[in-house]
Specification:
Layout: H1 2-38, E1 45-46, H2 57-66, H3 70-81, E2 84-89, E3 92-97, H4 100-109, E4 114-115, H5 118-128, H6 137-154, H7 160-174, E5 180-182, H8 183-200, H9 213-230, H10 242-267, H11 280-285, H12 291-322, H13 324-338, H14 345-350, H15 352-364, E6 370-375, E7 379-385, E8 391-395, E9 400-404, H16 405-409, H17 412-415, H18 450-467, E10 468-473, E11 495-500, H19 502-508
Parallel strand pairs: 1-2, 3-9
Antiparallel strand pairs: 2-3, 4-6, 5-11, 6-9, 7-8, 10-11
The structure holds protoporphyrin IX containing FE and 2-acetamido-2-deoxy-beta-D-glucopyranose (3 copies).
EC number: 1.14.14.1
InterPro entries: Cyt_P450, Cyt_P450_CS, Cyt_P450_E_CYP52_ascomycetes, Cyt_P450_E_CYP52_fungi, Cyt_P450_E_grp-II, Cyt_P450_sf
Protein name: Protein kinase alk2
Length: 509
């Protein structure tokens, strides 16, 4: 009797609970539908394949990634399904868009409705802690405010350091005339040297063969693990090899040493900036002495700027190696403007064809080709709904919106029939670009290092182009590749031969 009542009570409770779930779900649907109607929303088109129940799918994707063809693959998905469509990962709806109006809404107009999300934070935080690159909301605003002045000041740094590291790069490159080299490896060392010098005041000088390769190895490995874990979605935490924990420890120890020195210096009370070299960390240590905050922010800035700038340089030479016509025009401009001299800031800014080349590379090979945000409340995107895709769409709280800058940059209705072609001259044809050209993101979270990145890249390009007469493509495969996944995979696309300019070597000997 007692047992029977208990069973009865339990089943009643379960029944009520299920009823509760059903009614809330129905109510939610109803409310969402009403909300959508009020905002004129229509459903987006759907990609036919459900990613959940297709066992082969993750393996297919992994293979495509390995071949550096993930971006062309997603571009094709947009061509099939429209500029905004819904798909699903692990049973959850996901919105994909390459619509500039939607970029603007996610990143600016409705900035407060979207977050980087807990997944990105938790995965990255093991390496980056709580820094500008990983946090949202008020915490992010605080980080941004703390770092902004340092970036403004770093823009007026003199170019001596940059020249020094560029010369080291040149001597590395010049050792073999016309030999096949993988440029990307050289650029990774170059940007590591420059970044550590600017940020910490002390460069690891990998290009001089200093025994700092441990730091670079540990940092690259840690990033490789993080990047792999992104593909595990919610289960990112299952992969945490011992070597990873050790690598992170090593990297942090390295950064902590510099932090300690900077804090000591700041405590010695030199409130004013001393003359001489600008050091990012020392400036930051005048804002806060908290060693963990300093470590986290330094890690964030280092990781955000180093691989991206190296990748940018790699894509520039990838394109130049395949377009001798552009190489010749660029070289002519550079020799006319600068001769064999060091460029100044103003000269770099005024070099017109150089600017076009850089823009064209960023258009076809944006370094952050695809990105995402999570809605932190029910909201809408202005385009993608209905059969013509011109109505708004409803975005439920918690849904992920993936925005593909790569695909937008190659839309023929925006850039013309030759959108897939590398043609720098298009930047001189008077079309002002807005949200349809977004290599550095936009809105409040726009890349804070944009000016710095453009300066470093233009500077290195000028110095290299001055020194080499010709560049040859040595990539046997020579297929159109879509994404240089940073340091993570051997990349065939930047195999080149560089031929020294006899005149340049004579003047520098
Ligand atoms: C060609 C080189 C670069 C490209 C293409 C690039 C691109 C980007 C993009 C797309 C974002 C937005 C990421 C997001 O919000 O999800 C970003 C953010 C950021 N970038 Fe860059 N970046 C470059 C170089 C640099 C450099 C050199 C630095 C610093 C030394 C830097 C520091 C940052 C930081 C700190 C953020 C986070 C800003 C925030 O969330 O408020 N970047 N960058
Ligand atoms: C908004 O989102 C919440 C949480 O998912 C949900 O319960 C609610 O019904 C949604 N709809 C509206 C119109 O608020
Ligand atoms: C699963 O994905 C593969 C690769 O994208 C595709 O060829 C295949 O048709 C899909 N199968 C189903 C049942 O959707
Ligand atoms: C990059 O630096 C490391 C450490 O000094 C060195 O071992 C490696 O050869 C360098 N790579 C290139 C391509 O110069």
């Amino acid at each position: 009797m007692g047992i029977q009542t208990t069973i009865l009570q339990v089943s009643a409770a379960i029944g009520l609970y299920i009823l509760y779930l059903i009614t809330t779900s129905i109510r939610k649907r109803f409310e969402n539908a009403r909300f959508a109607r009020q905002h004129g929303c229509l459903p987006p088109s759907k990609a036919p394949v459900d990613w959940t129940f297709n066992i082969s799918r993750p393996f297919v994707i992994a293979k495509i990634r390995k071949q550096h063809k993930f971006m062309p693959f997603t571009q094709a998905a947009f061509q099939r399904n429209g500029n905004t469509f819904a798909t699903s990962v692990a049973g959850k709806r996901l919105i994909m868009t390459c619509e500039p109006e939607n970029f603007k809404t996610i990143l600016a107009t409705s900035f407060k409705d979207f977050d980087l999300g807990k997944l990105r934070h938790d995965n990255w935080a093991e390496v980056l802690g709580n820094g500008i690159f990983t946090v949202d909301g008020a915490e992010w605003m605080h980080s941004r405010a703390m770092l902004r002045p340092q970036f403004e000041k770093s823009q007026i740094m003199d170019l001596d350091d940059l020249e020094k590291h560029t010369q080291n790069l040149l001597s590395r490159l010049s050792s073999g005339d016309g030999e096949v080299i993988n440029l990307h490896e050289y650029f990774l060392n170059f940007t590591l040297d420059f970044s550590t010098g600017l940020l910490f005041g002390e460069s690891v000088n990998s290009q001089l063969g200093h025994d700092t390769s441990a730091f670079a190895k540990d940092l690259d490995y840690a990033q490789r693990v993080i990047s792999f874990r992104v593909s595990l979605e919610n289960f990112w935490w299952v992969y945490r090899p011992k070597a990873f924990t050790q690598a992170v420890k090593n990297v942090h120890r390295f950064v902590d040493q510099s932090v300690q020195l900077a804090v000591d210096k700041a405590q010695q009370g030199n409130k004013e900036e001393k003359e001489g070299k600008y050091v990012f960390l020392e400036a930051l240590a005048r804002e806060t002495r908290d060693p963990i905050v300093l470590r986290d922010q330094m890690m964030n800035v280092l990781v955000a700027g180093r691989d991206t700038t190296a990748g940018f340089l790699s894509w520039i030479f990838y394109c130049l190696a395949r377009n001798p016509r552009v190489w010749d025009i660029l070289r002519q401009e550079i020799l006319n403007d600068f001769g064999r001299e060091k460029p100044t800031y103003q000269q770099l800014k005024d070099a017109r064809y150089l600017k076009w080349v850089l823009n064209e590379v960023l258009r076809l090979y944006p370094l952050v080709p695809s990105n995402f945000r999570y809605a932190n409340k029910n909201t809408t995107l202005p385009l993608g709904g209905g059969p013509d895709g011109l109505s708004p769409i409803f975005i439920e709280k918690g849904e992920r919106c993936v925005y593909s800058v790569y695909a937008a940059h190659r839309r023929k209705d925006i850039y013309g029939e030759d959108a897939d072609i590398f043609r720098p001259e298009r930047w001189g044809e008077g079309k002002a670009r807005g949200w349809d050209f977004l290599p550095f993101n936009g809105g409040p979270r726009i890349c804070i290092g944009q000016q710095l990145a453009l300066t470093v890249a233009s500077y290195a390009v000028v110095r290299l182009v001055q020194n080499f007469e010709r560049i040859g493509n040595a990539d046997m495969n020579n297929e159109e590749l879509g994404d240089l996944t940073l340091t993570f995979m051997p990349y065939p696309g930047t195999l080149v031969r560089l031929y020294r300019d006899a005149q340049a070597s004579r003047s520098s000997d």
